[in-house]
Amino acid sequence: PHLSGDGKIAVVHNGIIENYVELRDFLISNGYKFISDTDTEVVSQLVSFYYAECGNALEAVFRVLRRIEGAYALGILCVDEPEHFIAARKDAPLLIGYGEGSNYIASDVTAIIKHTRDVSYMEDGEVAVISADKVQFYNAMEQTIEKEHHTIDWDVSAAEKGGYAHFMLKEIMEQPRALRSALAPRLRDGLVDFGAELGSALPERLGSVVITACGSAYYAGCVGKLAIERLCRVPVTAELASELRYSDPLIGEDTLVIALSQSGETADTLAAVRECRSRGAKVLAIVNAEGSSLTKLADAVLYTRAGPEIAVASTKGYTTQVAVLTALAAELARRLGRLTEPELRELAAGLYRLPDAVQKAIDLNPGLPELARRYCLGGALYYIGRGTDRAVALEAALKMKEISYRHAEAYAAGELKHGTIALVEEGTSVVALCCRTELLGKMISSIEEVKARGAKVLAVAPAGERRILAAADDVITVPRTGPLLDPVAEIVPLQLLAYYAARELGCDIDKPKNLAKSVTVE
Ligand code: F6R
Fold it and tell me: What is the pLDDT of residue 160?
């Protein structure tokens, strides 16, 4: 916590106060001295300034909130009022947990699940005064309000490692179960059926689809784009949220915007969604975290039901996003009349089989720790693929980068010869994703090109694909699940490859350096 100069006020803060320099100058001109350059210290000193004026911590906080700009989840304690503390939120996650004889604030439910499952989600502009046995809420107009209680329905063990060395490994292994819970409610009588889940999110005439997200969620969107375009024959673009919001996008009332986010709190994604809504678009959110900010902005929400994802690197968050997006593609195709009933049944059958296929993708590859040692510990690492394989390559390279700090890049295999092949030399590692059967010949040519320059090639291919066995140095085997579902089974061994590389390199796997689980600032 940051203390005010007089030691009376303590503040914890998640977010960024944008006008802190101006406020700092104001306080300095009033005789305040600072011991850090942080925006948070400015909040503690400003509360202290107003507390000196009015002698009431809540009133002082209200005055501060009228002056600060930016994003914040704040917890504020005043030494003269030890029986309670104050919380405030704007554009950063904050929830209240109700315990027995104790109450809590947290940015994420995983922090307090050991103590309580009874929570209220704070909204922008709201303030709460929390004592051991009572919580009083105020809205942005400073009027008292009542808040709804929500019960967190997952088990405490979901927030524990359960015998695994890392949360990431546990979450990788949990994927069959997570996929079952993501898909089961959307499969009925051998067909994909979202029932009333899409609510009012579909435009009357579907002109185009824009998928927006950041990081792994964006890469899930890249897979989803291919699935929706292929099944629905409507134009789909996948846009990074941080780019979309500043791109004066061609979005209107006939655009369906699909926003993907595990946390539902990613600042760039929220901002992109607000921008799209201001242009009249409908927004469908695909989210894991219940009660998160994105769920409140969207016209309808599809929960991925993956359970809490605690490791910073997304695994089950990503695969459940891809699975729900693919099921959504089938649902939209059915509504648009683009597919025959047998085609729809075949797709649904693939979705039913997906959790088992993911388990197989894990079981088929006990040699991954050894492959990680041979391919991932030194030199450059390139991931190549075409179509959905290329989209998966992007995610696989991101996994490797973020947890092992190894330099890994993904390329469309056909692009190699347009530049990147210049970087391939003796000993370069190339991971070639080869699940697109119709493009196998092309992938084999790419493998030969890089091998001719000295690269060693680790391929990912469906079981029994002899031509790949002959062309590559080593093969990670994945079960065949069908062109639209392969990405889900295919990424899982590559998540494990990154995990084992990071373990070998002694990295802090669950909390990689410089990264946060929810990126609540732009
Ligand atoms: C990668 C990763 C990040 C997130 C990104 C978006 O493993 O975790 O790239 O995918 O920050 O986060 P959400 O899905 O919470 O919006």
Answer: 84
Provide the 10 A C-beta neighbour count for residue 356. 15
Question: Which residues, 6 or more positions from 487, have their beta carbon under 8 angstroms from its beta carbon?
Answer: 223, 322, 388, 389, 391, 392, 435
- Distance between Cα 217 and ligand 1 center (Å): 6
pLDDT single digits (tens) 49-75 = 999 999 999 999 999 999 999 999 999
What phi and psi, each to the nearest 5 degrees, are found at residue 74? -120, 140
Determine the Cα–Cα distance for residues 210 and 280; give it in Å rounded to an integer: 13
pLDDT tens readout for residues 153-167:
877 777 788 899 999
The helix/strand count (H/E) of the chain reads as 16, 23
Which atom of ligand 1 is nearest the CA belonging to 266? 16
**Angle of the 316-335 helix axis to the 175-183 helix axis, nearest 10:** 30
Q: Are 286 and 304 in contact (CB under 8 A)?
A: yes
What pLDDT score was predicted for residue 482?
A: 86
CB-based burial label for 83 (10 Å; 0-12, 13-18, 19+): exposed
Give the Cα separation of 362 and 356 in Å (integer).
Answer: 10
| Contact call for residues 217 and 321 (beta carbons, < 8 A) | yes
Residue 300 has pLDDT above 90, yes or no: yes
Cα dihedral 497, 499, 502, 508, rounded to 10, equals: 170
Q: How far is CA 344 from the centre of its chain?
A: 29
Residue 188 Cα to ligand 1 midpoint, Å, equals 30
Burial class (CB in 10 A: 0-12, 13-18, 19+), 207: middle
Q: Which residue has the tokens 């709201």?
A: 126
CB 93 less than 6 A from any atom of ligand 1: no
Instruction: Give me the chain's average pLDDT, please.
Output: 95
Q: The tokens of 301 are what?
A: 């929400």
- Tokens 């989803």 sit on residue: 224
